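As promised in the previous annual report, we have extended the structural survey to additional targets. Below is the entry for ABC transporter ATP-binding protein.
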Amino acid sequence: MLETRNLTVRFGGHVAVDHVSCAFQPGTLTAIVGPNGAGKTTYFNLISGQLRATEGQVLLGGHDITAEPASTRTHRGLGRAFQLTQLFPNLTVVENVRLVVQSRRHEGLNLWSVWLDRKETLARAHELVKQVQLGDKADAIASSLPHGDQRKLEVAMLMALDPQVFMFDEPTAGMSVDEVPVILDLIRMLKARRDATILLVEHKMDVVRELADRIIVLHNGQLVADGEPATVIASPVVQQAYLGMAAKEAA
Ligand SMILES: Nc1ncnc2c1ncn2[C@@H]1O[C@H](COP(=O)(O)OP(=O)(O)OP(=O)(O)O)[C@@H](O)[C@H]1O
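The corresponding structure token record, generated without further manual editing, is:
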């Protein structure tokens, strides 16, 4: 289980995340919503270790990971979708995924096992590339992919990490309407397949409504609502803080 306790970060006098206490259960997809500047990405950064908390704790499986760097957290099973900047732009799609599979397996120094492992990791990488529907682009150079395909590649790399916790920060941002369903299908597949904890920051309320088991709402860095989607969406605090505006946009 992933948990934050009184998690807080201040930038000068500004409290971007303000004493957020929340536990995320395996087998649950939690959507994190809130207006622009509410602190959603900052909360993600504190959980994944890109940012250090001013106060409070992050716990994963009972371990206090607050002081650990992002790489250690990843090793413990906290997987955040890769950002475009983390791709190797000059490598092919399948090579990018293979590198993640390989890093996850901690290759030994025995050359024979390394060779065998290379074959296996390559096969696994191809499997993942097919799952995200990039099979026909496996040998394309990552930087040459259109934006939507790069996002699919990010998801394949996240799946290659095989984490306990999947963190998606606006996975459909910048995607064309016909590309969105592919990413949603992948997230649905992750939900159905195993006991994963999934955290999703998403502005599109139709996506949130469809995928989320639970919604938490951040506003001015504070957790202002938490519960089942229908209840949270209907709550006055949410309507006022955010969703009224989003609903108008969606209409
Ligand atoms: N490194 C930083 N230094 C100073 N202020 C920051 C820093 N990172 C975030 N902030 C501020 O913290 C607040 C929360 O920002 P954050 O990006 O987390 O919001 P968000 O809810 O993800 O917004 P959006 O939906 O627009 O992405 C904002 O006021 C932002 O300007």
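DSSP finds nine helices and ten strands in the chain. The chain has two domains: 1-77+163-251, 87-162. These points will be discussed at the next consortium meeting with the crystallography subgroup.
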